[in-house]
Write a structure and sequence with these properties.
Elements lengths: L3 E7 L12 E7 L7 E10 L3 H5 L20 E8 L9 E4 L6 E5 L4 E2 L16 H13 L7 E4 L5 H12 L4 E6 L2 H9 L4 E4 L5 H8 L4 E6 L3 H10 E9 L20 H5 L2 E4 L9 H13 L7 E5 L4 H9 L6 E5 L1
Parallel strand pairs: 8-9, 8-11, 9-10, 11-12, 12-13, 14-15
Antiparallel strand pairs: 1-2, 3-4, 3-6, 3-15, 4-5, 5-7
Helix pairs in contact: 2-3, 2-8, 5-6
Length: about 325
């Protein structure tokens, strides 16, 4: 196959908030698969908050993006050429080389998915890493039990919206969510949250107290900052926090101040635990089985915000950091 492939490269490392100048659209020669490889025409790619950390040249749990090279991330696409056993043209696969229109993928890094089971985008959201993050974080990391009260920040996002619904399905007594606009608050109510509030309307601690006057047992943290501080105050004895992300701090030029009430962890005997979804792969089969059933029965809903064109992938990523998405932010290639 001949032609031109378009990729988004990291042109420079941001200082604080990224801008469009940190990215570059590059045309490259169409790659050809060698032994054990696939050429995949990427269809939908994911942009995720964790990618902001990879733009910095710092040691972390994943290597930083390289300058003058394509970024990467979750993507689903169609095999157009195969030099690997078990894969044929027409197969739809999930892999990790997004931010480009065509990808040369080692067969061991690709997984065939069934487009008849769900829309292909679902494998980047509700049936993929996003869904497993919500499931594992709530049930294994935080250990939510029936009858408990759960608070979720960034609850209209891809992960948060699923956390709230899973909590309800697993018997939570009350589920509270925070979001960044009145429209998102309305959407949370439609998804079955018992209470929701716009964090722009006033101090989070006041809004959380009004939404959960008797306190909370579990906090699923996607934000950090004032949300984490408010949750620590609201948590009942032996409460648990699953720390999935802290998007409030990702673009800060200065290190954030720690929550001012950390001493409450002692008397309340609280547990705060950060986690990575990659540590919970043993739950994947259970999660897919259970989530597939909920989807078939119409008991779980999920939202997607789709931006068209590889050239608009940086704008989609920046929009995600500004909270412009409802549910999962995807780029259609």
């Amino acid at each position: 196959m001949t032609g031109v492939n378009r990729e988004i490269h990291l042109a420079s490392r941001p200082d604080g908030w990224p801008t469009g100048e940190n990215f570059r659209l590059v045309e490259t020669e169409m790659p050809k698969p060698g032994p054990g490889q696939l050429l995949v025409r990427n269809q939908y790619m994911s942009v995720d908050p964790y990618m902001r950390g990879r733009m910095n040249d710092v040691k972390s749990y994943v290597p930083p993006f390289r300058l003058d090279a394509p970024l990467d991330g979750g993507v689903v696409g169609e095999v157009v050429a195969s030099e690997a056993d078990g894969f044929a043209p027409g197969d739809v696969v999930l892999h990790g080389l997004g931010w480009r229109e065509y990808a040369l993928v080692d067969a061991g890094s690709a997984r065939i998915v069934d487009p008849g089971l769900a829309p292909v985008t679902a494998y980047l959201s509700v049936l993929g890493m996003t869904g497993l993050t919500a499931y594992a974080g709530l049930l294994e990391v935080a250990g939510m039990r029936p009858g408990e009260t759960v608070f979720v920040s960034a609850a209209a996002g891809a992960v948060g919206s699923l956390v709230g619904q899973i909590a309800t399905l697993k018997g939570a007594a009350r589920v509270v969510g925070s979001a960044g606009s009145a429209a998102k608050v309305e959407r949370l109510t439609a998804l079955g949250f018992d209470a929701a509030f716009d964090y722009h309307d006033g101090p989070v601690r006041h809004a959380l107290k009004a939404a959960a006057p008797d306190g909370i047992d579990v906090y699923f943290d996607n934000v950090g900052g004032d949300h984490l501080e408010a949750a620590i105050s609201a948590l009942r004895p032996h409460g648990r926090v699953a720390i999935c992300g802290m998007i409030a701090h990702y673009n800060a030029a200065e290190p954030p101040a720690a929550p001012r009430n950390l001493a409450l962890l002692i008397g309340k005997r609280l547990t705060l635990r950060g986690f990575l979804v990659g540590d919970h792969g043993h739950l994947r089969d259970e999660f897919v089985r259970e989530m597939s059933g909920w989807l078939r029965e119409g008991r779980v809903s999920y939202d997607e915000t789709i931006v068209d064109g590889i050239e608009n992938a940086p704008a989609a990523f920046l929009g995600l950091l500004r909270g412009e998405n409802l549910g999962k932010m995807l780029v259609r290639l």
